[in-house]
Amino acid sequence: MFGTNKTFLLSFVSLIVLSSCEPERSPFDVSPSESMDPKRLEEPYPKIELPEDIDLESPTWKGIDLSPQPPVIPVSANEEKKSFVLQPGFHIDPVLSEPQIREPAAIQFDGNGRMYVLELRTYMQDIDANGELMPTSRISRWEDQDNDGVYETGVVFLDSLVFPRYVVPFGPNTILSMESNEDHVYKYTDTDGDGKADKKELFVSGLGRSGNVEHQTSFLTWTLDNWMYSTYNSKRIRWTPDGVIQEPSGNPWGQWGVTQDNYGKIWFQDGAGGVPQGFQFPIVYGNYSVKGQWKDGFRIPFSLIKLEDFQPGMKETKPDGSLSNVTGAAGNDVFRGDRLPKELVGQYFYGEPVGRIVRQVTTENVEGLTYIQNKYLDKESEFIQSTDPLFRPVDMATAPDGTLYIVDMYRGIIQQGNWTQEGSYLRTKIQQYQMDDVAGNGRIWRVSYDGMPRNTEKPRMYEETSAELVRHLENPNGWWRDTAQKLMVLNQDKSIVPALEEMVKNSDNELARIHALWTLEGLSSLKLELVRSLLKDPSPIIRVQALKASETLYKYGEKSLAEDYRQMTQDADPNVVIQALFSAYILSIDQVEELMASTIESNSAQGVQLVGTQILEKIAEAKEEDANKFEPQQLALYNQGKSIFDSYCSTCHGPKGLGSPAGDGLIAPAFSGSQRIQGHPEYSVKTLLHGLTGDMEGKEYEGVMIAMDMNDDQYIASVISYIRNAFGNEGSFVTPEYVAEIREETKEKEGTYTFEELTGEVPKALILQDNWIVNASSTALQGVGSTKDPSYAFGYKGWKTETSQEPGMWFQVELPDAHNFAEIQFDSRNEFPISYHVSISSDGNNWTKVAEGKGEQGVNNLRWKSEESVRFIKIESTEKGETPWAMRNLILYSR
User: Fold this and answer.
1) How far apart are CA 286 and CA 234, in angstroms?
2) CB 600 within 8 A of CB 592
3) Residues facing 443 on adjacent strands
4) Which residue stretches of the chain have pLDDT < 50?
5) Cβ(344)–Cβ(453) under 8 Å?
6) What pLDDT, on a 0 to 100 scale, did the predictor assign at position 17?
7) What CATH number matches the domain at 632-762, 1.10.760.10, 3.40.50.720, 3.30.950.10, 3.50.50.60?
8) Mean pLDDT computed over every residue of the chain
9) CATH 3.40.1350.10 fits 461-589, yes or no
10) Count of Cβ atoms closer than 10 Å to residue 864 Cβ
């Protein structure tokens, strides 16, 4: 299917389609408890036995009720519906439930209104998290074909996944997704229209994170500014016709949930912290501390569940047994629909699954600063409460029909296995109510309101032209506007530019003007004169959006905007002033520190004072960090490379490494986020030494890369080291000695490289496939719910030996096909091999040593030349060490 032979990929052929026959009962009347062991309901109920060393007088345990209790019993969706306590006028109804879906954790709608469901089918299937990383999760896609409000028809779009992190619709029959302990985002496409993905392509690398599944990247989200943001990543990425670029950002402090409001303000949802994060200012400008942004009382949940079953224990329990302080949160949405009361538009919603509540958050802007509060604090209530202990709201979304959807995992355990270990308070409470037996369910709910029926118009954006999509920018439902904008940007059809410009200038709909502005920016068709006219717009909201969009023009060379940023710091609206300061700061305009200081002196608004002061602190911190970021030799290369790039290379490749515009394209490729630049360094070295001409992967560029071999090895190494570590890139440094080796090897090269010729010579990274056989002489267990799997060496999770390293310890890979291995690379951090050698074999019995080296902390590389193509490669330790031998992000290269 994807160049692999995973046996578990066979489940791709499973197609879920509900029967067209009328059932005797609604699917929502079928109760999961009907298939449960009836003995669970019989008394006497199990008695809890605690370890002897538990201190029952400690704050966590003091006052705990340990008496046997009847088990919590799952009920049907229609029965659970009766448990909800809603605000007056609101209603909640199921639209999809088990057995059609299991363990739903997130939803997304595509351009035709089909609902993708992220099903984490291995999450906490027992109290010890066994099998958590088994490849049995999936992404399913559902449709309401008869338009009755229920999603009755579904397919398994992508199966056999290892705890996938998100699903991002990305055009007709295409999604983006990433698995746990991975560093690669892939694009999956259904090319034959059968509803199942059959094509897998690498989209971007560098977004991964390993460790506890609750603490990995989630919710990659395309936002108003045409960038994509996710949790746990201090960077943002962007699709362009020339590839995916990336930029650094602040730390989002989010765990499970990313959403935006009508004006592109991004909200991240913290998990264990239980509160929204990152909502003050755009995260690309960094993190800012605002005292009191969560108003007094915000952290108090009003739960109707009184089981005392939460990780902090009795110290955070109200006298009635309910939760006294938010301890977990998941999923979020700024409601932007048109089929609930208008006062909900722009309100932030998120789930507190430990408290079994959905919270509505109100916001207040005071002189440019945002403060938030529980809408129903005065009533000591929440937007939604439930008396069913299994209600677990983990995501929510504004739907195409204008209402709010809520994803309910409907399960007994919501905390991951690290918090349910033997002897823990939480494990005791889970077992007391036998909640560890309740798994494998899940419901998706629609929230509606009296007298406001859902919108029954079915989106058909994939069948519409770009010209037809423009009208959706005026839709009162933010989902329609967002989706239309994204598709127009992906289409790159510039025939709609006049219509978009007309909308920006003359529409009475301010939100349509904003989306049209950003669509122009995404089409690389935003003109300087239009931006400058919008900087004088009567609406401060439009002025803010114009400032943000203008940053792209500045990055592509319109340096005259620096004066506009200076002038806009004198604006009467503090929000405009703050944005002008942000733009000046992130673009590092000349004398930016002086601008911050003078603005602080002249403008007393709270937000201006806070932002200006903290930006000055960030500038000072950055100077200190830059001085210590690299080793002295690396810093010298970096600084020399920056000087050369700014003086020469930026003319074609752009001052920010984004490429310089030329007509409808670029003079030269962008460097930001480039997999070619961050990949094997031989590509860049050969390009600079001998030049590059012709199209690249089907893309034509106006410029030609001439040979730079008249420059010395230091010059070449410095430029490449700089571009591999600037513009959000993260690559190894290139030494002058390495350049000298490549120069000698290619001294007979005549003429300029073509792209095909060059990529044919450069060592290629072999991506781990499921038909590789990976073995090791010793493998340690890596985390709760894991197995002793040496193939973790190829990911962020990593592999290491069970004991301290000894001579003869080995790590071996057998591939199904022969390759001409040329190099290995791995990251060893603190547990690196003292010394090691690499051997190759055609049969796994007779070995030839091809290279040897000393290990070091950080990235290790070992190169060799061999004319032999083989299937086996082995790395072997040759010295005794005091620590285990560990590797992660292992890469095998072949020619």
Assistant:
1) 9
2) no
3) 97, 408
4) 1-23, 784-785
5) no
6) 37
7) 1.10.760.10
8) 90
9) no
10) 15
